[in-house]
Amino acid sequence: MGDVGDKLKGYTVIREGEAEILMHSSNTVFFNKTQVNNRDMSIAVLRAFISRRKEEHASFLNKRVKLQKKVSEGKTSPVEEKTASAMEAIEGECEMPPEQTLNESDATKELSDLATGSESTQTRELKPPKVLEALAASGLRALRYAREVEGIGQIVALDNDKTSVEACKRNIQFNGSLACSKVEAHLADARIYMLTHQREFDVVDVDPYGSPSIFLDSAVQSVADGGLLMCTATDLAVLCGGNGEVCYSKYGSYPLKGKYCHEMALRILLACIESHANRYKRYIVPVLSVQMDFYIRVFVRIYTSASAMKNTPLKLSYVYQCVGCDSFHLQPVGRTVTKNNSVKYAPGFGPVVPQECMDCGKKFNMGGPIWSAPIHDQEWVSSILSGVKSMKESYPAYEKISAVLTTISEELPDVPLFVSLHNLCATLKCTSPSAVIFRSAVLNAGYRISGSHVNPLGLKSDAPMDVIWDIMRCWVKAHPVKVQPADQSGTVILSKEPKLQANFARAVASLSKAQAKKVARFLPNPERHWGPKVRAGRQITSKHASLLGLENINGSVRHEEEKQASPVTPCEPEPSLDQENDEPDKKRPKIGEEHATIPSCG
Length: 602
Ligand SMILES: C[S@@+](CC[C@H](N)C(=O)[O-])C[C@H]1O[C@@H](n2cnc3c(N)ncnc32)[C@H](O)[C@@H]1O
Ligand SMILES: [Zn+2]
Description:
The chain has 21 helices and 17 strands. By secondary structure, the protein is of the alpha/beta class. Among the domains are: about 80 residues, no CATH class; about 220 residues, Rossmann fold (3-Layer(aba) Sandwich), CATH 3.40.50. The chain has a seven-stranded mixed beta sheet with strand order 5-4-3-6-7-9-8, with helices on both faces. Strands 11-10-14 form a three-stranded antiparallel beta sheet. α10 links the parallel β6 and β7. α14 packs antiparallel against α15. The longest helix has about 35 residues. The chain is globular, with a radius of gyration of 26 Å. Bound molecules: S-adenosylmethionine and zinc ion (ZN).
C-alpha cells in the first residue's frame, strides 16, 4: 500500500466516463477536460459504426450466397461473373486491390460494392474493428474507447512525445486488465506509422493541436476500405478566414469571412481530406460533421474506387460571396454530361455570377473549393442520436451532444451554407423579423428552410438569394427604414421592387422540431473558460492567460515570454442562444472593401 501510495505521489486521478487517468502536478502531458464533448461524440459514432458494420457484413454475406447460387446454376450475367470471381479473389486474399479486378465501366454499383466491400466485410468472419489513436497524449480517449465501446478490437495509441507515451502506458496499467489487453502505446511519429500501416485500421482518430493538415495524407492511407476516419481541427481562426493564405497553404481552399464560416470550415476540411484520398484512388463519404466549442470534427468513411472517384468534382464548389450584401452563390467545380446512356465528366460551366452582384452591385470574393455535397448522412445521425438517448447515463456530455445531434438531424442535408437573419437586417438597417416569421415567408413561397447547428441564427434554405431579398423587401415595406446613403448595399437592394409578394402568415412547419418539442439546441458552456488548452510543455505567457483564463493554466504565467506567438487563436463563439428577436449585429468589415485584419469569424 505504501509503495503504491509513493508511486502515486504528485498525481491526481481524473475520471471521464469509465476511464481514469493519472495527471501529474507538473501537467506536462496534454489533457483538456473540455474535450469531453469531442470524446463523447466520438464514442457515439464508434458505437453506430460497429453496429452498421455488422449490418453491412450480414448483407454482404447474404448477397454473396445469392450470387454463388446463381453461379452454380449458370444463370449469371457477364458482370455478375466478374463480380463473383472478384469476390473469390478477395477471399483468397489476392494482392491486387479489389477494384482493379473489375471492369469498372460495366460493373453495376451494387455488384461492385459487393466485390469491393471493406476488407473486414469481405471475409466470412467479421473481426472486431482495429482502432488507431494517432495522437494520443495521456491515452484517455483510447482508454475510453476500450472500456466503453462494446465490440471494439485492438487500439493502438501513438504519440511522438516520450513523456506522453510513458503517461499513456501508466494509464493503461492503471485502468486494469481489459485496458491492458486492448490498448497498446507506442512512441512514434504518427505520419510515418500510418504510412507504414496502410489500410490496416478500421478506425483512425486524428486529434491534433491546431491543424490536422500534415497528418491527412498518411491518415487516408491507413484506413481500411469502408473504415472510418475521425478528424479534429482546432485552428478555426485559420479555417474561418482570419488568414486566408495560411488556410490555402494548409488545406488548399480559400475561406471566406461570414456568419457561415464554421460550416465553411467543415466543408474545407472535408474537401481537403477528399483531395488526399483521391491521390490513392480513394474517396470519402461523410457520416457526421460537427462544430462544437472551439473546434470542428469530421467523421468520414473511406472507400477505394477509381471510377467513383471521378465524381469528386461534382461534390466540390467555389463560393462567390458579395462584399456588399453577403449574398452567396455556389460554382460547382465539375459537371456530368449524359449522352447515349454514357456519362461523361466535364468542368463546371461558369461563372455562375456576373462581375457585379445582382442584388447590390458590389464585387464578389471567391472562396473554396469547398465540399458542397452533404456533410452528414442523416440515417447515421438518427441512429447515433437514438443510440445516445438509449445510453444517456454513459455519456458525461449527454446534454451537449444530444442537443448538437438534434439540431444536426434537422439540418437540410442538401443545402450548403446559410443566411443569417441578423446579417440580412444589418445590410438593410431594418428591424429583424422573428425567425418564425421569416421561416414562414420562405415556406409560404414554396421553399424549404432549416436551422444550422453551427449558428443559432443561421437559416439554411433552398430559396435563391433574390427570393430571400424579396422577402426582406416586403418586410421593410411593412417596417420602413430611415433613408440611407445611395451607395449603401441596403439602399440599392431596397430600391428594387420585389417580384414576389411575401406571405408572412405563420406556416405550420415554421418551428423546428426541437423548438416545437422545446428540446434545447444550443447550450451555454458549463464553465467559464471552456476552450482550448495550450500545447503541453509550452511556457505559459500572460497572452495565454488572457486567451484561456487563469484557472486553465494553473495561474503560472511567465511574463518575460510575452512576445512568443500564441499557439491558440480561438475563434469567437457566436454570442446568442436561440434568440430570435435580437437587434441586428453591427456589420463586420468586408474583405475587399476595408483592410480587415481581425481573425474573427464574422
Ligand atoms: C491535442 S493532443 C491529443 C489529445 C488526445 N487525443 C485526447 O483526446 O486527450 C495532441 C498530441 O499529439 C502529439 N503529437 C504531435 N505531433 C505528433 C506526431 N507527429 N506524431 C505523434 N504524436 C504527435 C502531441 O505530443 C500531443 O500529445
Ligand atoms: Zn451584393
